[in-house]
Write the C-alpha cells for this entry.
Amino acid sequence: MFGRATAALTEFLFPRRCSGCQTTGAILCAACAAQLPAVPQPQCLVCGLPLAPGMPCRHCADFPLSRDALRAPYVYTANLKSALLRFKYVGARIAAQDLAPLLGAYVAATNWQVAGVIGVPLHPRRQRERGFNQADALAAEVGRLLGLPRLGALERVKDTPPQARQPDLQARWSNVAAAFRASHGTPVSGRRILVVDDVCTTGATLSACGTALRAAGAGAVYGATLARAL
Ligand SMILES: [Zn+2]
Ligand SMILES: [Zn+2]
C-alpha cells in the first residue's frame, strides 16, 4: 500500500514523459510506439538479422549462436534508446510496464511455446551498484503479460567489463563467454526457456546465456530483446 502511494506521488511530482513526443503518461506513448521501425524482413531464422534475399547469414557463419532463435521487434533507434535510459529515473518496474507490452505481443506471435522467462542477470556487484536490472524488470513484466513463470535459473558468475567498451565483435564474444551459469537446482531440464534483454547488439550475451541453459539441460532457448542494433 505504501509502495503504491509512493508510486502515485512520484508520478504526480515527476510524470512520465514520452521519449518521442514528450506527452505525459508513459515513457513511450502508443502513437510513438507505433512509429518504431521494425527489424526488416527477410531475417536470418537463427539470429534474426536482416538478410539479402537468398543469401546465407554471414553473422551466423562467424559467430554461431548457442540458442534456437533470437529476435527483436524493433531497430534500436533514438526513441527506444531514450526510453530505455528512463528506467533509471522513473523506476525499473514502472518503466517495464510501459515497454514490456511491445515485447510481450511480439513473443506471443511466435510459435516458441516457452515454459518460463529469465532476464539476463547482472553480476551481483553491478546489480548492487545500479539498484536495478532492466532486463529482469522487462522479463518479469513480459512473464506477467504472457502468464509465464519467471525462472531465477541463471547467474552471472563473471563480472565482465561492459560490452560497449569492447573493440570488436570477437572481443564481445570472448568477454561474455562462460559469464553465466544455471543456478543450482533450478527446473530448466527439458523446458523451453525465453531469455529477455533490453537491447541486442551482437547476440554474444544471449548466446552465452543459451550455452549455460543448454548445459543445464534446457530443451530449447529463445532470446528476445526489445531492440536490435543494426
Ligand atoms: Zn509519444
Ligand atoms: Zn544469422
Summary: Residues 33 and 46 are 26 Å apart (CA to CA). The first helix runs from residue 2 to 13.
